[in-house]
Structure formats: structure tokens, C-alpha cells
Amino acid sequence: MKLGSVIGRVTLNSVVPELRGARWLIVSPFSRERFADGAGAPATVTKEVNLVVYDSLGADVGQTIGYVEGREAAQPFEKSPPIDAINAALVDEVFYAPFPK
Which of 34, 85, 96, 97 could form a disulfide with 53 if both were Cys (CB 3.0 to 4.6 A apart)? Predict the structure, then answer.
């Protein structure tokens, strides 16, 4: 699982039947630089490529989520839909303490 910040939503006017009624989020993945100083900086858009994530948990813009990419994203469905990422967790807090050098 990876962490990211929800920076927007996607609205579709045409979709495959398996995904009708689904919610979609635009997510900015967290990068190592975000935690470089040992403290979690506020959520910002990173230089990483943003992704569109299927959401069944009700995440909102500005919230931190845990998402899964690839084949595992389709595992919760009876019939595998054509998705690449799914929201797997709503994150309340992130605690980070780097290993001493």
C-alpha cells in the first residue's frame, strides 16, 4: 500500500457497466522528500505523476489515503473491472521517525 493526498475528483459521463456509479479521486502520491526533515509536511502536490483512484470509502479532497495499484486493485470485485488503483484506507495520522544515520 502507498500513501497519497486526494487533490481532486473525477466525473465521468460514459463508463463501462461494471463501474457505473463509482467514485473517482485524483491522488498525489507521497514522496520521500515529503518526510526528509523527519516531520510530515502538509499535503502538497508532488512532482510525481498523479493518479486516478477508485474510491468506495468516501475520501474527500485534502484527505490522506492508502491506495493499492496494479492487479490487487481489482481483487475486491467479483468480476475484475478495468481499474489500476483503489482506495484501501482512510488515514487519520502518519507518524514518521527516520532511522538514525
Answer: 85
Radius of gyration (C-alpha) of the chain in whole angstroms? 15
Question: For the domain 2-91, what is the CATH code?
Answer: 2.40.50.220
Q: How far apart are CA 12 and CA 98, in angstroms?
A: 41
The residue assigned the cell 484501501 is 88
pLDDT, one tens digit per residue, over 46-100 is 566 789 999 989 999 999 999 999 888 888 777 878 888 999 999 999 887 777 7
* Residue 15 confidence class, pLDDT cut points 50, 70, 90: confident
The beta strands (E) that lie in 11-78 are given as 23-29, 51-55, 64-69
Domain ranges for the chain, please list them.
2-91
pTM over 0.70: yes
CA distance 37 to 44: 15
